[in-house]
Amino acid sequence: MQEQTIDSGIAKTFAYTGVALVLSLVVTQGWLMGFIPPPSPALPADELARIFIERKVGIRIGTLIQCICYTFWSTWAISIAFYIRRMERGIPVLTYASIANIGGGYVFFLLMPITWAALAFRPEELDPHFLQVMNDLVWFIFILSWPPFALFMIFIAVAIFKDYNVPTIFPRWVGFFNLWTAVLIIPAGLIEFFKTGPFAYDGLISFWFVFAVFFGWMLVMSTVTLRAIAADKRARAA
């Protein structure tokens, strides 16, 4: 069988795109759009419409940047999928499942800025209640879409625990870290039951906690993937 090698330059670039995605989210939603934290789901429709009208330029610029940088989900996740393939023997079931999962996650990432951009295109002409429902939809996409991402974390963990390489590509603690992260983002599923409090989509748990856990996971996985790439490069040089 042909040895599975990776171009370290391309792999490092792909791993760093995850960091770029996280930074772009903080800059666009936090600074340009003012959506960190989200507008409260209990906010009256007229007040929410006023926010979109007042911030429409920032929202348009922010969503343009997001449409570019959120595509990095696929490049970043593929840098991990390659190592999942390296951990598997025989038919790479986890690899195939991960690639399919990555494609689905890519759709969720792009639906968010596209919907916000459409709302900010002509917010003065939209019925405030329609705008409110569509804004709810974006936050539901952002937070309630946790299951496929949790599944990807589980795929990573299973691959690490079954890794036949010596030494293993990722340390075993990374597998446990992925399992715990998959569990810790479950409270995101409660946002459809609450308009106020810690489980609302602007709440302490369903937004702030899940937000920190998920994007912290991306930064940790970027770090361990970069270490794996460096170890590959040293092994080839030796």
Automatic annotation (TrEMBL):
UniProt entry tagged with the keyword Membrane: yes
Record key words, sorted: Membrane, Transmembrane, Transmembrane helix
Top-level taxon: Bacteria
TM stretches of this protein: 14-37, 57-84, 96-119, 139-161, 173-194, 206-230
Identification of the protein by name: DUF4386 domain-containing protein
